Amino acid sequence: MTEYAPDDGLLVIDGLRKEFGGLTAVEDLSFAVEEGEILGFIGPNGAGKSTTFNCVTGVYPPTAGTVYYDGEDVTGEPAYEMVKRGLARTFQEFRPLPDRNVRKNVELALVPDRVLSLTGLRGETRERAVEICERVGLGDRLEQTPDELPHAGLLRLELARALATDPDLLLVDEPFAGLSNSEVEALSATLEELRQDGLTQVVVDHNMRGLLSLIDRAIVIEFGAKIAEGPPEAIRDDERVQEAYLGGEDR
Ligand SMILES: Nc1ncnc2c1ncn2[C@@H]1O[C@H](COP(=O)(O)OP(=O)(O)OP(=O)(O)O)[C@@H](O)[C@H]1O
User: Fold this and answer.
1) 128 partner at 20 to 30 Å CA-CA among 59, 100, 111, 134?
2) Which residue's CA is the closest to the ligand 1 atom numbered 28?
């Protein structure tokens, strides 16, 4: 059943279904990401969050359903096409190049055809990498190698790498895992600044720690289906959400 029109949001997911053999990981999931918002995409472990975004970012073709980006049907488009269209994501398990410094790691993530066509302008590539590092709070760590960064710094480097593709929409995967409360606050402030600069964001997480003060709205899924959608306070008080997390003391 069609619930959304192609231009109901920057990203629109309509009737998405993904099966792996006999297992249905995502079932008839529909939602829209509005331009300029920070949307929380929340669900317990195994709820289907990664599968949803793997279907959106071109890792897997969906079994059924439609994905629209910027008004166009992009269902099943490969990952590099989605990046070209302006969709980027961070990965929880990322591996920066260990023998390159922070600036170089970001330089190497800059859109390749742009870098190649600007070989005469290497200074510009460097400048752009430095600018991105500054945006994510790594301006004073440009010459450090990844192993010299604290965990929170590595997360910021992953954010910088994703920003290097110049996205309009960024999917941020569990950004607060392993961070202290003050680091969560500092990273939230960075994400909020990026939003002020026009970057729409979907923050994916299995718990709500740190999210409620950052997000405008949340979608909560369980067993591959949407169980709640709304502003953070309503989500927190929603009975189905509380049931889904029953016993989950990490809410
Ligand atoms: N490539 C795959 N092949 C088979 N089953 C898969 C595959 N990827 C995910 N699944 C299954 O699909 C379901 C949803 O998993 P998914 O990783 O999307 O959940 P999640 O919400 O991202 O969980 P987490 O918070 O633990 O990352 C799970 O039952 C998982 O075992």
Assistant:
1) 59
2) 46
Paired tokens of 44? 């317990």
Ligand 1 centre to CA of 250 (Å) is 20
Ligand 1 binding pocket mutation candidate from 20, 42, 221 (most atoms within 8 A of CB): 20
What is the value of pTM for the model shown? Answer: 0.92
Can you spell out the DSSP letters for 153-215?
HHHHHHHHHHHTT--SEEEEESTTTT--HHHHHHHHHHHHHHHHTT-EEEEEESS-TTTTTT-
Tell me how far the alpha carbon of residue 25 lies from the centroid of ligand 1, in angstroms: 7
Residue 141 Cβ inside 6 Å of ligand 1? The answer reads: no
The DSSP element (H or E) to which 220 belongs, if any, is: strand 217-222
Domains and CATH numbers, the chain: 1-86+170-180+199-250 (3.40.50.300), 93-166 (no CATH)
